[in-house]
Amino acid sequence: MRAMLFGLMLAPTAALAEPIETQKIITAATGDWNGDGATDLAMIVETEPSEPMDIHFFLRDREHNFLRPAGIVREQITGEWNGYDRPGYEASDTEPELTALPNGSIKLYLPAMPVGSKRTNQTLTLAYRNDAFIVAGFAYDYHDYLEHNVASDCNYNVLTGKGESSRKRPDGTTEQKIVSVEGKIIPFAEWNPGTGFSACGE
């Protein structure tokens, strides 16, 4: 990773990214975001402890073989990383995760903060369209660990507005519902989780 960042510094001046402290990189993933056959990069970078994190995107310039900055989405990623600047802490279980999907999209998993009994994990699918990273999919799973049979989940395609949700009933059975709302194209920088929960009927 350090070598990769050093490579970025050797890129032409017009394509330089802002400086990044390597110890603040929480996680990263490589894949072909724009479908040109070259390997691109996305990485989550800590801002301040307990504050929302940033995600940095890079696209590889195939002609000159360097990673070109393709945008920074600020403070859209929740989580907590107990790391280098907090002596005495060990690794947290609420670190966000990035996974490259076979179709070139990015899976962004946002685990629930370990506070209280009600926990909601979220998953976003990010896709590169028209020179921007957009939210193509939203999913969540909710559990109340102090209440019996209090749980729900939803998975829907933001672009088409179609999906499905489920909710446990007090008797232990599950109620299934179809999600059908207006499809939208929402840049990740403008994403509001309320959009997803609203579509899922929450």
The assigned structural class equals: mainly beta
What is the radius of gyration computed over CA atoms, rounded to a whole number of angstroms? 19 Å
**pLDDT < 50 runs, ≥5 residues:** 1-16
- Overall strand count: 11
> What is the strand arrangement across the widest sheet?
5-6-7-8-9-10-11
Query: What is the number of domains?
Result: 2
Q: Number of DSSP helices? A: 2
User: Averaging pLDDT over every residue, what do you get?
Assistant: 86
In percent, how much strand structure appears in the residues? 35-45%
Secondary-structure element order, as H and E?
HEEEEEEEEEEEH
What is the rounded distance between the termini?
40 Å
Secondary structure: helix percent: under 10%
**Cα shape:** globular
The biggest beta sheet reads: 7 strands, antiparallel
Organism: Mesorhizobium tianshanense
Protein name: VCBS repeat protein
Keywords: Signal
Signal peptide: 1-17
What is this structure's SSE topology?
Layout: H1 2-9, E1 25-31, E2 40-45, E3 53-61, E4 66-77, E5 97-100, E6 106-110, E7 118-129, E8 132-144, E9 151-157, E10 162-168, E11 174-180, H2 193-199
Antiparallel strand pairs: 1-2, 2-3, 3-4, 5-6, 6-7, 7-8, 8-9, 9-10, 10-11
What does this structure look like?
By secondary structure, the chain is mainly beta. It folds into 2 domains: 1-92, no CATH class; 116-202, no CATH class. It has 2 helices and 11 strands, in the order H-E-E-E-E-E-E-E-E-E-E-E-H. It has helices at residues 2-9, 193-199, and strands at 25-31, 40-45, 53-61, 66-77, 97-100, 106-110, 118-129, 132-144, 151-157, 162-168, 174-180. The strands form 2 sheets. The chain has a 7-stranded antiparallel beta sheet with strand order 5-6-7-8-9-10-11, covered by helices on one side. The protein has a 4-stranded antiparallel beta sheet with strand order 1-2-3-4, with no helix packed on it.
